[in-house]
Amino acid sequence: MVSKRWAERRQMVRAAYLYYEAGLNQSEVAKRIGLSRPLISKLLQKARETGIVEISIKDDTIVTTQLEEQLTNAFGLAEAIVIPVQEGWDDEEVKRQMAKTAGILLKKRITRSKTVGVSWGTTLYHFVQEFPFVQAKHLRILPLIGGMGRNYGQLHSNQLAKQLADKLSATCEHLYVPAILSSENLKEQLLDSMDIRALLHEATRVDVAIVGLGSPYASTMTQLGYLKESDLESLMKFGAVGDINSRFIDENGEEVADPINERVIGIDVEDMRSIATVVCMVTGKGKAKALLAALHGGYIDILVVDSETAAAVLRLKEGGGRVVRGDQSDGDVLY
Q1: Top-confidence range, 14-18, 33-37, 277-281
Q2: In 186-259, at which residue ranges do the beta strands (DSSP E only) sit?
Q3: pLDDT in tens, 60-118
Q4: What is the pLDDT of residue 286?
Q5: Would you say 318 and 273 are in contact if contact means Cβ atoms under 8 Å apart?
Q6: Whole-angstrom Cα distance, residue 116 to residue 306?
Q7: DSSP string covering 27-87, please?
Q8: Which fold has domain 62-318?
Q9: In the chain, what are the domain boundaries?
Q10: 4-49, CATH topology level
């Protein structure tokens, strides 16, 4: 005698076969079996839950897709873009590949905006170099931080803003001051300039801000000589774990009280929270703690990150903020 349970299971398997193997849609399956479409949907769901149907995605990108979903859900991001790191890639190649992918995936969002702000550093340098040429004459590009300096001029915000504007046939603004000044008094004097104040005010209201991320010992400011050993010691004392747009933050994502933050000319972290879309690009699992802090601070809407750093920041979150062995600084110097 055929049991009721067997009959129900047969119906479930038949629905699953017609849907997954025969390629019928749910309405067609319902008509074939003689059940309602909502009931077919429930049968298919139960078939997955009981293990009758197992869905397996056979593609290498499933790993990065899972990381993207985990990051998005864990930190409330609008989007996460995770770039797979391949064996043999050095830091520069990781940045280049990430920049190329980011340019392709973010092109539409950027060209549909009216104003875009850019920070500085090697990651953003690679992003600008790899960004495709496209017409967006309506667009204005603004620096988010002072963009003058003797060394590594190609990394400064003014140069990056100009190069990106050239690729877009867009208008470019310049902020003719250093990123960080020798004294707070000098900063106040420069801010007396109406032009500088007006540009910084505009920068706080861009549609899209593109920034990098650093840690005290792996920062553009350290490499360019803006930070001395005494500055680094002071930052450590104040609990700094990273910087975003050259504003140093603690593990909770709050701006630290170190005087060096008062010498930076650029938009501050509170301004970043009010910008509609902040895109943060970061590579190097040694920056996992800095990235976790920035995510806790709520500064990032779209995260572009390599797979190793993505995994490291998720491990760090699960560990309650403890750096996992193997996730320490990897020698990355410029962000």
Answers
A1: 277-281
A2: 208-211, 213-214, 242-244, 247-249
A3: 677 888 999 999 999 999 999 999 988 888 888 999 999 999 999 899 999 999 999 99
A4: 87
A5: no
A6: 23
A7: HHHHHHHT--HHHHHHHHHHHHHTTSS-----STTHHHHHHHHHHHHHHT-SEEEEEPPPT
A8: Rossmann fold (3.40.50)
A9: 4-49, 62-318
A10: Arc Repressor Mutant, subunit A (1.10.10)
